[in-house]
Design brief:
single chain, about 300 residues, alpha/beta, 6-stranded parallel β-sheet, 3-stranded mixed β-sheet, globular
């Protein structure tokens, strides 16, 4: 690890970050810049290069990372990925009494099952802390974090994650952060779908659609998704990929499952899930949601 961090980190927890992807990379870089010692592990080891060059220490295994860290952070793609890391590695690390903060967006039931398993087997506690704000928010440290867990663990999470967020809201017990993230994604996903159909309609009707986000800025129809994906949809610019269709689809499917469990109807989000599934099935799962414009263009 680079020497520049050594004098800054003597009073800080040593963090272990698992999952150096679109979001994990900028998060790790901000934690390093804030003076934390950060151990890192990623399934694809080549993705570790930028954070190791910035001062992170690459670990050969998840078990090694957990043993060497005070707080473990996860930022993984889905429920299956989190469950695999926890059940196949963290449970077998021999570590006890530590805190795990899961920044992934996963199923609340899976969250609660894994948290209970870790508590029973290792005495480790869990905070689910999914984030909103995308890659730009991670880079700027302006994420919104929705957190579930015990009050004392939330206070630790506030300190550890301080370089990453604009606001962190404690919403209840373990699992409540994930439920709040699902609510967030219901709004975001439905918004992006209606922006796509609106831009397509405006273009077909002869409007300079690239100017619509500017025209609506500050009004009731304005939103961050409109300002981000609206111009991209109008101009057909889909690179670089900042987030993925498959991520919104995953979260919408979790919304449908949650609503079913609660006996609620969510027709708008249900329709958005069907449209997202259709779009993904046409080869766009790994693409940016701005490509949703293609669903509605003639």
């Amino acid at each position: 690890m680079k020497q520049k961090h050594s004098s800054m980190t003597q009073h800080k927890s040593t963090l272990g970050f698992i999952g150096i992807g679109l979001m994990g990379k900028p998060m790790t870089l901000r934690l390093l810049d804030a003076g934390f010692r950060v151990n890192v592990w990623n399934r694809s080891r080549d993705k570790l290069t930028p954070v190791v060059e910035a001062g992170a220490l690459a670990c050969d295994s998840v078990e090694q990372l957990v043993q060497a860290s005070d707080v473990v952070l996860l930022c993984l793609s889905d429920s299956q990925a989190v469950a695999s890391v926890v059940e196949n590695s963290i449970l077998n690390s021999g570590s006890t009494g530590k805190l795990l903060i899961d920044l992934s967006s996963i199923d609340p039931k899976t969250t609660r099952r894994l948290a209970e398993l870790l508590q029973q087997r290792c005495g480790m506690t869990w905070v689910d802390a999914p984030v909103s704000g995308g890659v730009q928010g991670a880079e700027q440290g302006s994420l919104a974090i929705m957190a579930g867990g015990a009050a004392n663990d939330i206070e630790t999470a506030r300190k550890v994650l301080a370089p990453l967020y604009r606001q962190l809201t404690h919403l209840g017990e373990v699992g409540c952060g994930q439920i709040a993230k699902i609510c967030n994604q219901m709004i975001v996903s439905c918004n992006v779908v209606v922006i796509a159909e609106m831009i397509a309609l405006a273009k077909q009707a002869g409007v300079d659609a690239a100017k619509i986000p500017e025209a609506l800025a500050g009004g009731f129809a304005d939103s961050k998704p409109l300002q981000i994906v609206g111009p991209e949809m109008a101009d057909g610019i889909f690179e670089p990929v900042k987030w993925r269709v498959k991520t919104l689809l995953k979260d919408l499917n979790m919304a449908v499952d949650l609503a079913s469990d609660q006996g609620n109807a969510i027709p708008m989000s249900g329709l958005a899930a069907q449209l997202m599934q259709l779009h993904g099935s046409q080869g766009f799962l790994e693409q940016d949601p701005a490509t949703l414009i293609k669903l509605f263009e003639r």
